[in-house]
Every structure is written in C-alpha cells, then in structure tokens.
Request: fold
Amino acid sequence: MSKFDDAQNALKKLGKEILDSLRDGEFPTLELPDRTTGNIVFDKTKGQFVLGDSSITRDSKNIKHIKSFSQLMWVAAFAKKLLGAQRTSSLRDLYYSSEGEDIDFSSQSESDRIVADLESLTGLAREDFGIFPEEHSSIYGRVTMEYTVPGYEGREVDLTISPDGLPVGPALMTAEPLDTNAEMILAVESGGMFSRLIETKAWETFNAVLVQLGGQPPRSTRRLMKRLHEHLNLPLYIFTDGDPWGLHIARVIICGSASSAHIRGLTIPEAQWIGVTAADIVNYDLPTESMTDADMKRLDELKRDVRYETPKWQAYIDDFKQLRKKAEQQAFSRYGMDYVVDVYLSDKLT
Reply:
C-alpha cells in the first residue's frame, strides 16, 4: 500500500469516527499522543527522541477545546482536498488558505502546530498528506531518480542536469532512487559551499552526491537523504560551520529533534559529522570570530542535551568552550578557492 493510500485511509478513518459519534448523538472526542516536553524521551536504543505513553483528549463539548478541535478538522479536510486533487501545499499556503475559509489561526505557528496534531493523530508525516515546508535545500550528483507525481510518472531525472543543483521539493522527495555511481552523500550547510563543490567538481573527486542543507534542513530533505542512504547504500557525511549551530545541524540529522518525536523515518544514526571542530580551527589556522554570549549559552545547552552525552560529542563542546572561537566553512578560502576540497575534505574523507 502506498503512502497516498495510507493517508487517504487515515483521513477516511478519522472522518468515520467523527460521523459515528454524531450519529450516536455524542460529542466527538479525539485521543492524541501528548507532544509536551514531559512526554518526550530519548530512546538510547533507537538513538532518537520518541513520545512516551501519555496522551491528551480533545473533546468537542469542552468550550476550551472547540477551537483547536475545529482547526484540526479543517486541516484534515484541507489535506483530503489536496490528496483528492493530487496537489501539494506549503505550510505557508495552508495558513493563507485558512484565511480564505474564515478559519481562525492567530499565526502560521498555530496552523503548523495543528498540522503536527494531524501527524500525531494519524501516525503519518505531513508530507504524506501533500503538505511541505518552503524549499531551501538542493541536491546535485550522479543519481537517477524516477518521478512519481501526477503528470510525471515514470520520467527519469539525472541529478546533474542543472549546474545549480535541483531544489528538494515535493516531486523530488517522492521520486524513486533508481541508480547511482556515487559512493557517498556529502551534505553541506551553506549554499555558497554547495556551489563551490559543484564548480570545483568535488562531486567527481569524492564521487559524492552533494546536498545543500540551507542551515537546519527541512524534514523533506532529511527524508530524501535517508532514502538515498538506505536505498542506494550511500554513507552520509555532514560538513557544517564550526560553531554550536553547525554541531546541532548534524545532531538533528543523526538523532532527530524533540519537535519531530512523533514522526518515524527521519534519523540517520550512521551519519558522520565532518564539520569544522575547534581543533580544526587551530590546526588549519583558520580566520575566526569570537563566540557571542548566545553562542556560549547554546554550548551550555548542548552540553546538557542527552543527544550529546557521549565522550566524543562532549569533547567537541568542551573544546569550543575553551577556544571561544568559531569559524565558517568558507574560512578555508584564505588559502585559495580549492583548498577546502584539495586539503580539508580530502583529509576528512580519506
């Protein structure tokens, strides 16, 4: 059964439960997994955050629940329209569509939260309902994908077709990986570094599929990397800036996030971080900036985060706290445009 069928069946099941309650003369109620902090635990066996056993009830006869209950029903109806029309929507588009139908969301944050309610209620990801975040990631490399979206079914695309890379949108995220000559996935934090690695043919040098993360990547990009990792047996390496934010980009890809604890199939525990460490800053004598108060506070937070409790990750944090300096990926350019490929990445990947 396809994800499309799963999503349609989940919505039909939800609609039937609501109708059955109404026909029985009862106020419908919904039982949702509790996504509050107290019910999010780190599963060390799985290496990711998961939800505990606690749940919440949304009762349509409770005046405090009526708004969120109605919003959830509207989001489910919106998703049903998308699936029926074989269309997709961004989270932003969903928010503005609600205004057109006089559905009261105070902000997009509120509508995003209700979309997450639909995910946790059905056990399916928003992408399965055709709802995606705004794109800001790209991909480039020797991989052939086959589209599955309506109107393009069966068409194949070579991911080297554009020198700018291809944006990771709904069509690419749902395409099937067919074949590759690549030996690894190299995910990089910034668009500038992504372009540099294409221009310098680093993708040929390392026989790598390049992924531009664009900062903390959207779930659609993490899902695509996981599919390439599993379907094509490609190891994943993550190259980020040398600061607490770069560290956390890698750990979210590897271990997941608390906000996605209700979703399965996103983490890549085998991925390796090859970003700029404090030791790299010293050893490569990189241009640096001083850590700000916000950077130091973030390091303290990561120090206490269960995802960073292993000696290796604790050491990375301690080294940055001691050095109190940070460096971007582009800092290697002080030695020439190709230095990052010829020296740094060659050191890290061999």
Observations:
- The mean pLDDT is 93.
- The first strand starts at residue 29 and ends at 33.
- Residues 3-23 form the longest helix (21 residues).
- The CA atoms of residues 99 and 105 lie 8 Å apart.
